[in-house]
Every structure is written in C-alpha cells, then in structure tokens.
C-alpha cells in the first residue's frame, strides 16, 4: 500500500530557498504531512543535484545520501562544499512506519554566496568628504549627511543566462539596475559590529539585465554605521561616511562571463535626499530629483568620481536571516486639528515604520511630519519621551500633480502623525502607516474568550514586530534602539511562540559573541555600542539562556556548538570572580529587576540565582552535544551555587532574602530551593501578591516567570487573577488606557500622575509581554517536552481558569502544525488537538478518571493512537500518536 506520508516545507538553514549562504554544510529540514494517525518517518534519503532536471532524471550529480535510518531534524548536507555562487537543488523522500516509501518531495534549493575573502574583487566606494555635507541639517546635528547616488554603466555583448549581484555597505543601501529597484529589502545589510563583521546580500538580477548598455546604481544612507544611534547626539560610531561594496557576476548565453565591481570608475553625486537618519528622520527635496539616474544613457557628466578604498580585513559574511521589509500598511482611523494648520492623523496602532504621504501643492511647499506614540491631554503630540531623537521627516514639493513621499533610510515608532506645511495650502490625497520589521514569519496564533486577553496577545505580537528589526531592540521611538540582552532573554520563549525567529536569533547570537569581552563578559547590548559595560546579571546571562531556548524550541544543537566556547568563557569568568558560589563580584551595571513596581529585589539574590541557572542550562546543553564530562562539571557547579544561595539567602522556613515576588520566582523557577521548602516559598509568593492587593510587583526579570511559577506550584487561580486584572499595575490597566503595544513601564501613564519621566518611558517595549509564552504553554496548552527539544515530543496540557470558556492556539513547529482548541460549556471540557506526523504527544485532560474521557465520541482508551498513561491530581494523561483528535470529559472541579 502506498504511504500517505509526504515531505513538505523543505528548508535550508531555517530559510526557504536561501540565496547566498556561506555555510559549507548547511542544515536541511522538512516537515511531514499525513492523513493516517501515528504516521512517522523511519528513514529518509536526500538527493542533491546541480539542476531540477537532473533530480527529475534521478541523476543526483552532487550527492546521494543513501537511505538513512532515523527521524531527522536539522540534517546536515554531508558532501563536499559548493563553489562560490553555486546553486544546489535538493529533494527528500521518506519511509513510513510500515517501511513504505513516499514520493520524492518537490525540489528546493540553496545557493552559495561569496564565502571567502578572495572571492571579492571590488573596493569600498562613496562620496568624498567635500561632496558629503548637508546644507539643511540643524546646526547641532552635523552628522546628518546627504545620501550619495552612485552609478556605473557597462555593456553586455549578448543575452544573459545568469547574473548575481553581491552587495553590502558601511551604512545602509538600496540597489537599482536599469531603472528598477533590485530588492524590496530595507535597511540592508542590517546592523552588526562593522569593525568585526559586515553582512552582505545576494540578488538574482538575471531578468533585469539586457544585451547592450546597462546601468547599475546605488543609494546610500548613514544607517547604524555613520548615523545617529543610541543616547543623545551620538553618531559616526564606526565611520564618518557611508560606502558601498558590490560585485555583479554575469554569465552570458554563449558561456562568457563578465564581472562588474565597485571601484574608482564609478561616479557619484547627491540628489533629493538631503539627509536620511534612523533617529532624526529624512529631509527630501523633490525639486532635486534625478530622473533616469539609474538607467542606461543617463548623462552623468557632471557627477564626480567616487572615493575608492581597498577592502580591509573586516569579515564579510552572508546574511543569515530574513531581511527587513514592509510587512503591513495601515489606514488612518481618525484625524484631529488641535491648532490652526496642524493636522494629526491617528493610525489606531502603535507601530515601527514610516508614513506614505500622497500630496498636491505648489513647488517649494515644505511639508513636515512629526511622530509620536501618544497624545497630550490637549490633543497635541507627546514627544518628550523621544529624548534626542527628532523623528521628523520633511518633504519639499516639486509641484507636479500628485506626489508620493516615503522615506528611504529612516523609521519611527509612532501611532500619531502630525502634518504641517508652509504655506499651509496643501491637499493631502492619502496617508498611511507603513509597518517595517525583520520579515520573520508568523508561527503562532492565540485566541480566547476574553477580549482583554486577546488585546494583550495583539499587543505582544505588535511589540515584537516593532522591535525585531535586524536585532531585538528595546524600543523603536527614542534615541536608543539598542539590542539589550536582558530584554531578549526574558522574552525569547514568547518570541519563538509568535514567530519563526530561528534565523533571526542565529544572526543576533553572533552579534552577542562579537561583543563578548576578552575576559569572557557578555555585554549589556549587542552590537556593543554606546553602553560599553558587561556582566550585568540577567543581561549577560542571555549569552546562555537564548541559545538554550533556541535549542528547546527548534531542536537546533548547532547553535549550542557554535557558541559553546563563548558560553564556557562566560561561566569561567563567573567562577573565577565568585569562587564561593555567590555572585558578588563582576556585576557590571547591576540593573536588578528593572522597572519593578513598589518592590526592590536584592541584586545579590538575583545575580546568584542567574549564576546557578546558567550552570544548570550549561549541563543540559553539554549533554545534548555529547560533552558528558563538562555536563558533570556544570552539574557540580549548579549544586555548589545552589548550596551557597540557600546558606546566604534562604531561611529555614522558606523565606528568601528580600521577600519579594521576584526573589521567590527566581528561587522556584531556577530550582534553587530544597523540595521541602518549595511550598512555603510559593505560599510567601502568593502572600506578597495579596499584600499588593492581588497585583504583581515584578519588573523585566520577574514578570516572565510569574504565571508559569504560580501554575507549577498549584496557584493557577492566582495566575489567572493577575492575567485578568485591569487595575493598576497590570497588563489590563495599560489596555484599558488605550495601549496597542506593550509599555516599558507599568506606570508609563497613570490617571493619578500622568506620564512617567520622559527620560525612560517607551510605549512600545516588549519585555513585560513575556507572559505570552504562558498563554501558549498553559492557557492553550502547547509545549515541548524538555527531554525531546524542538517539539519532537509535544505536551498538550491546557489549564482553564478565570472566566475563560475557550482558548485556541496554533503553532508551526519544526515538525509541522500543532493545534489545541478547548471549550468549556455546562461543566464539560472538550479539546481538539492536532499533532504533526513524526511526533508524539502527551495529552492531559482535566478529568479525574479515564473512564469519563471520550475521543471522537467513544471511550478514549479504545481510540486508535491513544494510550492511557496515568491519573494524577485530577488529570488524566494519555500518550498520543500524530493525528487529529477530539477529547471530551466532565470538567474536574
């Protein structure tokens, strides 16, 4: 009998058909679909060929893996590395549980970039210093530079068979070829430490070239390289001016090749973009546009020769993650006129991006756009919290009918847009909010019967979308936008639930390692810029926690291997500095439980807890990559730090020093207490919540552990109470007061005090949204078994509570889609579950007896693919094979 098992969703290095990678032996993965319950892959075979035609002809000329036993996840290509620019086509077939072979999958491919330094032949080119000054920049912002326009022309003698354009920039760039924009990617090449590593991108431009004359052009922006980044008026962190490096490789139909590179033969000028800065905004004078500048035959006689510099030793690396793109466009929801000549447009959603403006007016009319997240009581923009970021775009009309303005190399964090003009006679024919983000695909969805909780999930997703832009930033609106490690480590599990961030964090973890000090200290931010300290507890620990989490969510052990040496250096530094097991030395900025409310967790308690937690996770990761001796060493270190923690900070009755919610959460979550004290500590945690009037007091560090720990210690009702609170401080309070993203502070705005200090008050900051993982893992009940990372074994254990009558979630796991949808009506609990092929699950039904549970309307114990495991604590546990199921039972009281 033919199998119904089908390999689908073929990916390489977490991406679909990736261009220009530089991994010699990339990871290949696929998911499996089947109609029959219990289907699984018992073996597989991979073919790799130089064309899809050869695969169809059963002639894999690059590699045939042969039949390999096992389930596979992240299987490595195992033959000789490909050449620079070479494309490999691949497909897979599998054998099912009965030994029947599937059909071959549809082909997928990956393509190599230019992985070796000697593969590159171009030079860095840009405008000379004399040609790179802005006459319209404010006097206090001398780093605002006009965007260079660069071009070269060349002739091809015949039709093109294949062409690849490899490019990067010191700064940010946009490529044009024969009058067409090459890519929809924005702010390429993305932010890295430009002194250590610069990403490059690869583009297929075969269809844009032509026989005869061609023109290649580029626009440059200062970006993170030379523009304003971080606090205050700080710019030029890596260099003074942007520059381009590009290489176009063309193969003609007759087999001859041409290579066009960035060099001194290019010419450059400035045009309408008088400046375009990430923080300060863009100034665009449409009267200075250069029509046809990127087309063949354009007269560039008055353009200047470019400044060219040889390449240095900074590594050029392939971009490994999804690019920044436009991911949504939002219409205006309302307009107001708080003063004559001032119009404020409300997009109804706090976002990261820019405005697309359609306008008519006289030539020379100056239109100014200012941005804000929230309004003052008088209806004007609240911009004090932007600090030194001007967040202002200026457009000068050319006066030729309807004109469209959207900036090139800036973005803002905003919901409200203020438009003014000089003169005030202006016809705005259209305005919309353009949302940009790293284009990480949505992986999860969550919904329940409570509208406030649904809005909370919405706010979490939009906070993630607004802050995952090349790196995980802290906020998109003010003069900061740094990659804070503490924020990332507490939110990473929620991030994985919402979106496929495997490639995104693969990239950023290299930024983290680049920023590690020679002594082993992980930084506060990565890339390390503006705030140069390291070793802050809960921040530096991201260097261990984030790789561990990515492994748990995606089953990716290569990320552990890639960063093992860096993680080891970090633990070695902690041990050298704190041999007695208490983290008292080398605590850097020592942020503590940042923005906690009416609570002060002792910093030495927090630090030592993370010291122990790092050791615990290192032991688990060591075992996963076969380093058993090191696992035993880290087990011993965890026991050592745990003992020191108890001697120093835990009383015989279970009181943890500080007696704060976060102190108990850390001790309980990180397994630092003896078993006989856990119940006492949990009771003290609940007592503290009651003393706070049933409210949380946690900051960034504690908030992510709050509901999970309460659930694990038998206080699910308290967790739901905190989730559903609408009084201050709570998630519901911000939502009740109009939040559409997660606020940085619980008290960002209160009815009694108004706005918090503008020195630090973001209204789009994802950290306090780390409750999102609990919505998926507990409310909807989708989780991975820690003993089988990557959802190879799945836990389906929804735990209803509060006023919820249903919850549903779907998650696109590395093995395929998982779904959990429960309803509660008239005391009866119903659960619909989807488990992907090639996995198994433990499904937990809140029913005290298996006899009361049905599946598909029949006793669950008789159902195909279902096996009773045990009854315990008012729950019935089943081992379930892959497939779709519907369980029902009277709800346990």
Spans where pLDDT lies below 50 across 5 or more residues: none
Please count the beta strands (DSSP E, at least 2 residues each). Answer: 47
Biggest beta-sheet profile: 10 strands, mixed
Count of DSSP H/I helices:
15
Shape: globular
Mean pLDDT: 96
Strand proportion: 25-35%
What is the CA-CA span between the terminal residues?
A: 47 Å
Coarse structural class: alpha+beta
| CA-atom Rg in angstroms | 29 Å
Percent of residues in helices: 10-25%
Summarize the SSE layout with pairings.
Elements: E1 6-12, E2 27-33, E3 43-49, H1 52-56, E4 63-64, E5 68-69, E6 75-76, E7 87-95, E8 108-111, E9 124-126, E10 148-156, E11 160-170, E12 172-177, E13 180-181, E14 197-204, E15 212-221, H2 223-226, E16 243-252, E17 257-261, E18 267-270, E19 273-277, E20 281-285, E21 304-305, E22 307-309, E23 315-318, E24 324-331, E25 334-339, E26 342-360, E27 366-372, E28 374-375, E29 381-382, E30 392-396, E31 403-405, E32 412-422, E33 427-438, E34 444-448, H3 451-467, E35 468-469, E36 471-472, H4 485-498, H5 502-514, H6 542-554, H7 558-577, H8 603-624, H9 628-649, H10 661-669, H11 675-691, H12 700-712, H13 716-724, H14 731-736, E37 749-750, E38 754-755, H15 772-780, E39 782-784, E40 793-796, E41 806-813, E42 816-825, E43 828-845, E44 854-855, E45 858-859, E46 866-872, E47 875-890
Parallel strand pairs: 14-23, 20-30, 40-43
Antiparallel strand pairs: 1-2, 2-6, 3-4, 3-5, 3-7, 7-8, 9-22, 10-15, 10-18, 11-14, 11-16, 12-13, 12-15, 16-17, 18-21, 19-20, 24-33, 25-26, 26-31, 26-32, 26-33, 27-30, 27-32, 28-29, 34-41, 35-36, 37-38, 39-40, 41-42, 42-43, 43-47, 44-45, 44-47, 46-47
């Amino acid at each position: 009998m033919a199998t119904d098992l089908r390999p689908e969703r073929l990916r390489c290095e977490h991406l679909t058909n990736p261009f220009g990678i530089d991994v010699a032996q990339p990871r290949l993965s696929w998911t499996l679909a089947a109609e029959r319950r219990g289907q699984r892959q018992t073996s597989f075979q991979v073919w790799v060929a130089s064309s899809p035609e050869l695969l169809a002809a059963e002639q894999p000329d690059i590699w045939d893996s042969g039949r390999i036993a096992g389930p596979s996840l992240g299987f490595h290509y195992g033959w000789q590395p490909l050449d620079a620019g070479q494309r490999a086509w691949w497909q897979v077939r599998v054998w099912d549980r009965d030994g029947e072979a599937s059909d071959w999958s549809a082909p997928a491919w990956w393509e190599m970039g230019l992985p070796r330094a000697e593969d590159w032949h171009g030079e860095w080119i840009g405008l000379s210093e004399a040609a790179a000054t802005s006459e319209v920049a404010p006097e206090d912002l001398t780093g605002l530079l006009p965007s260079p326009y660069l071009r070269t022309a060349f002739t091809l003698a015949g039709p093109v068979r294949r062409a690849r354009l490899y490019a990067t920039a010191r700064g940010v760039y946009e490529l044009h070829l024969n009058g067409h924009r090459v890519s929809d990617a924005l702010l390429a090449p993305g932010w890295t430490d430009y002194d250590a590593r610069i990403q490059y991108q690869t583009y297929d431009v075969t269809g844009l070239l032509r026989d005869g004359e061609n023109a290649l052009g580029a626009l440059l922006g200062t970006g993170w390289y030379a523009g304003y980044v971080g606090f205050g008026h700080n710019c030029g962190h890596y260099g003074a001016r942007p520059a381009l490096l590009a290489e176009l490789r063309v193969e003609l139909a007759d087999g001859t090749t041409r290579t066009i590179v960035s060099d001194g033969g290019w010419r450059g000028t400035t045009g309408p973009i008088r400046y375009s800065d990430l923080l300060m905004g863009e100034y665009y004078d449409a009267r200075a546009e250069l029509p046809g500048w990127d087309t063949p035959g354009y007269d560039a006689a008055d353009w200047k020769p470019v400044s060219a510099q040889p390449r240095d030793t900074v590594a050029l690396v392939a971009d490994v993650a999804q690019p920044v793109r436009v991911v949504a466009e939002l219409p205006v929801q309302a307009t107001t006129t708080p003063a004559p000549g001032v119009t404020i447009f409300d997009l109804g959603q706090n976002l990261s991006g820019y405005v697309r403006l359609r306008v008519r007016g006289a030539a020379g009319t100056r239109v100014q756009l200012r941005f804000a997240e929230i309004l003052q009581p008088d209806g004007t923009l609240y911009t004090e919290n932007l600090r030194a970021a001007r967040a202002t775009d200026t457009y000068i009309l050319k006066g030729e009918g309807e004109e469209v303005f959207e900036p090139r190399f800036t973005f803002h964090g905003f919901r409200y847009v203020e438009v003014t003009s000089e003169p005030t006679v202006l016809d705005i024919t259209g305005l919309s909010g353009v949302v940009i983000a790293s284009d990480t695909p949505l992986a999860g969805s969550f919904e329940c019967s409570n509208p406030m909780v649904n809005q909370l999930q919405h706010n979490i997703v939009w906070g993630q979308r607004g802050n995952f832009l090349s790196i995980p930033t802290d906020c998109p609106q003010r003069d900061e936008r740094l990659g804070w490690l503490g924020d990332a480590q507490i939110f990473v599990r929620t991030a994985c639930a919402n979106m496929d961030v495997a490639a995104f964090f693969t990239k950023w973890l290299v930024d983290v390692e680049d920023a590690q000090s020679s002594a082993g200290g992980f930084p506060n931010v990565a890339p390390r810029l503006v705030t140069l300290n390291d070793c802050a507890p809960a921040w530096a620990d991201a260097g261990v926690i984030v790789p561990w989490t990515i492994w748990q969510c995606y089953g990716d052990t290569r990320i552990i291997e890639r960063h093992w040496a860096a993680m080891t250096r970090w633990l070695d530094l902690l041990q050298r500095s704190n041999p007695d097991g208490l983290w008292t030395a080398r605590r850097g900025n020592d942020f503590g439980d940042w923005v906690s409310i009416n609570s002060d967790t002792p910093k030495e308690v927090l630090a030592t807890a993370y010291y122990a937690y790092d050791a615990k996770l290192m032991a688990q990761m060591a075992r996963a990559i076969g380093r058993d001796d090191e696992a035993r060493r880290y087990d011993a270190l965890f026991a050592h730090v745990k003992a020191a923690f108890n001697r120093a900070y835990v009383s015989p009755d279970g009181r943890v020093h500080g007696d704060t919610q976060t102190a108990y959460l850390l001790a309980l979550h990180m397994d630092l207490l003896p078993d006989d004290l856990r119940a006492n500590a949990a009771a003290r945690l609940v007592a503290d919540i009651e003393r706070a009037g049933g409210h949380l007091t946690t900051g960034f560090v504690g908030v992510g552990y709050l509901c999970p720990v309460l659930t694990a210690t038998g206080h699910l009702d308290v967790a739901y109470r905190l989730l559903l609170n609408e009084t201050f401080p709570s998630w519901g309070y911000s939502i009740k007061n109009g939040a559409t993203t997660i606020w940085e502070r619980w008290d960002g705005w209160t009815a009694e005090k108004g706005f918090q200090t503008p020195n630090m008050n973001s209204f789009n900051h994802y950290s306090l949204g780390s409750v999102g993982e609990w919505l998926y893992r507990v409310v909807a009940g989708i989780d991975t078994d820690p003993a089988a990372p990557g959802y190879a074994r799945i836990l389906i254990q929804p735990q209803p509570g509060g006023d919820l009558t249903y919850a549903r979630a779907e998650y696109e796991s590395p093995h395929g889609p998982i779904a959990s949808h429960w309803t509660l009506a008239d005391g009866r609990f119903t659960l619909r579950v989807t488990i992907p092929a090639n996995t198994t699950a433990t499904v937990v039904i809140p029913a005290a007896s298996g006899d009361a549970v049905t599946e598909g309307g029949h006793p669950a114990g008789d159902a195909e693919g279902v096996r009773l495991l045990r009854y315990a604590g008012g729950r019935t546990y089943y081992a379930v094979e892959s497939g779709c199921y519907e369980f029902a039972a009277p709800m346990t009281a």
